[in-house]
Amino acid sequence: MIPRLLLTGAAGGLGKALRPRLKGDCHILRLSDLVPLDPPAAHEECMQVDLGDADAVMKMVEGCEAIVHLGGISVEAPWSHILKANIDGLVHLYEAARIHKVRRVVFASSNHVMGFHRQDQVVDALTPPRPDGFYGLSKAFGEDLSRLYFDRYGIETACVRIGSSYPEPKDRRMLATWLSYDDLHRLVVACLTTPVLGHTIIYGTSDNAVSWYDNRLAHHVGYRPQDSADVYRDAVYARTKDPDLTDPTTLYQGGAFVKIGPLSES
What we know:
This protein has 266 residues and is of the alpha/beta class. The chain has helices at residues 13-21, 54-61, 79-99, 134-153, 174-177, 181-193, 233-239, 248-251; strands at 2-8, 26-33, 44-48, 66-69, 104-110, 156-162, 199-204.
């Protein structure tokens, strides 16, 4: 049981999925987001925080033993927005973690760090990143930043390259990337409770038969997915067209993100 656990991005889709699930893993769950949150339960604390505000982030982190960081922008966006939330905001978070002596962070990275690897490739934690946009690039930066704070200050971090976490897979791509909400919770708890985490990159998917991700370098985390996209395979195939093998969204692991743009704000 963690005395006080901070969950950022608590008003987002994954934050809402984890909020009720994490209540049994800590004495107090501190929730934060840029937008207002539902009123706190007896074991909860709520804070409305802009990650771009260093002073507010410092207060948000104070008194917390561990952080599950889902906050920031989770889709492709203009660079100015990505910079404030995902770059500056993450620096603020790790500086606050350093000052307040937070021992462990679970950082919501993304499969889009690897988006321009092909779907006929299998990647692991040592495969060079190939971001598919500014969003994926910001997550690659976050992984490097967290490694710096581990090497210099000893803050352990799990960089969870989350695939596609929804109630069920929406398309054929998600048969490889899908992560159930319950498996997301299992993964987060494994990262928070493994005896020695260090700095670890781990791919966040369920136990899907089709996979582009090799987690052999993260076995020490102890994550064992129990759900699978395979039970949805027939339904997904029935409602989707055969893939166009000349389409970049079919060829590359990032899917539609490899074509979202333009990257510039002009």
